[in-house]
Amino acid sequence: MDLSGRTIAITGATSGIGEATAVMAARAGAAVALAGRRADRLEEVAARIEEEGGRALAVPTDIAVDDEARAFVQQAYEHLGRLDVLVNNAGVMLLGPVMGADTSEWRRMIEVNCLGLLWCTHAALPVMAEQGTGHIVNVSSVAGRRATLGAAVYNLTKFGVTAFSEALRQEALFSGIRVTAIEPGFVETELQGHNAHKDVVMQATDKMKEKIGQILTADDIASSILYAVSQPDHVNVSEVLIVPRGQPG
Ligand SMILES: NC(=O)c1ccc[n+]([C@@H]2O[C@H](COP(=O)([O-])OP(=O)(O)OC[C@H]3O[C@@H](n4cnc5c(N)ncnc54)[C@H](OP(=O)(O)O)[C@@H]3O)[C@@H](O)[C@H]2O)c1
Questions:
Q1: What domains can you pick out in the chain, each with its CATH number?
Q2: Which of 29, 118, 138, 244 could make an S-S bridge to 4, C-beta 3.0–4.6 Å?
Q3: What percentage of the chain exceeds 90 in pLDDT?
Q4: What's the pLDDT at 222?
Q5: What is the pLDDT of residues 236-247, one digit of tens each?
Q6: Centroid of ligand 1 to alpha carbon of 11 (angstroms)
Q7: What mean pLDDT is predicted for residues 164-168?
Q8: Which of 58, 5, 13 is nearest to 30 (CA)?
Q9: pLDDT tens, 198-208?
Q10: Is 29 helix (H, G, I), strand (E, B) or coil?
C-alpha cells in the first residue's frame, strides 16, 4: 500500500486501533495528525513515527469539546497542507444495565462516540469539499449492528455511527468525498479497561476470549482502514464488518 503524499487525521491515536492505524499509515508514506487527551502518549506515538522517518503532528485534544475537535481538524489541515482522510476512531465503551446506571457514563459515551465524531466531521467536510476529494472513516462496531445485553447505550451510540455514516456517504458523494464505516468485533485494546465495574467486565471479557479463541489485533483493524482508504478514487468501501473467526455474534 502506498499512501505517499496523503495526509490522514486520526482521533483516539494514543492507543489501540488509532495508534496502530497511525503507525501503519505513516509506514505506508502518509503524513499523520494525531488526536487524543493523553498528551504524553500522543507525543510518544508521534516520536516513534518520526524516528522511523515518518511525519506526525501530535495535537492533544478532547474531541468531546466542540472547539477542541474543530481546532484539531484545522491544525491537521494547516500543518500538513491538505486533509485527505479523517479517521473518526476515538471512543469509549462503558457497559452495564440501564436501570440504576451512572448517567454521567451515558453522557460521556454520547459526547465522545457521537458528538466528537460529528464535530470533527463537520469541520472536515468544507475542507474536503474545497479540495474536491476526501475520505471520512468512522470506526463503529459490531455493536452498531447487533444489540446485546449490558451494552444498551454503547449500542445506541454505535448504531448511530453506522446510520450516520451511510446517510453521510449518500450526501457527501456529491462533493467527491467518500465515507466508510468500519465495524470491528472483539479487538485486544485498552477499551474494556475504562469500565467502572472493571472486574466484572474483565471477567466477562475473559470468558468471551476463551470461547472465541484468537481475537483481533489493532493491526487487523488498521489494515482494513488502510485497505478502504487506498482504493482508487471511484471505489467507496462503504462498510467493513470484521470479526474474529471464532466470534459468533
Ligand atoms: N476494542 C474493541 O473490541 C472494539 C470493537 C469495536 C469497535 N471498537 C471501537 O474502536 C475505537 C477505538 O477503540 P480501541 O479499541 O482502540 O480502544 P482504546 O485503546 O481504549 O482507544 C480509545 C481511544 O479513544 C481516545 N479517546 C477517548 N475519549 C476521548 C476524548 N474525549 N477525546 C479524544 N480522544 C478520546 C483514547 O485516547 P485518550 O484516552 O488519550 O483521550 C484512545 O486513544 C472506539 O471507537 C471503539 O468503540 C473497539
A1: 7-242 (3.40.50.720)
A2: 29
A3: 92
A4: 98
A5: 999 999 999 999
A6: 8
A7: 98
A8: 5
A9: 778 788 888 88
A10: coil
- Per the structure block, which three cell numbers stand in for 238? 462503504
CA 19 – ligand 1 centroid, Å: 10
Residue in 154, 162, 168, 181 annotated catalytic: 154
The yes-or-no answer on residue 227 being catalytic is no
Q: In Å, how far are 99, 119, 177 from 11, measured between CA atoms?
A: 31, 12, 19
The distance from CA 89 to its chain's CA centroid, rounded to whole angstroms, is 1
Q: CA 237 → CA 43, 135, 179, 196, 231, distances in Å? A: 31, 10, 8, 36, 8
Residue whose CA is at the smallest distance from ligand 1 atom 19: 16
Give the three cell numbers for residue 7: 495526509
User: 90 near 138, Cβ under 8 Å?
Assistant: no
Supply the pLDDT for residue 24.
98
Note the pLDDT of residue 196: 77
Note whether 61 and 87 are within 8 A (CB): no
CA–centroid distance, 142 to ligand 1, in Å, is: 15
Looking at residue 136, its pLDDT comes to 98
DSSP calls for 107-171: HHHIIIIIIIHHHHHHHHHHHHHHHT-EEEEEE--GGGTS--TT-HHHHHHHHHHHHHHHHHHHH
How many Å is the maximal CA-CA distance in the chain? 51
**What is the C-alpha to C-alpha distance for residues 10 and 83, in angstroms, rounded to an integer?**
11
d(CA 114, CA 5): 30
Question: Starting at the edge strand that comes first in sequence, how are the strands of the sheet with 31-36 ordered?
Answer: 55-60, 31-36, 7-11, 85-88, 134-139, 177-184, 239-242
Q: Which three cell numbers stand for residue 73?
A: 481538524
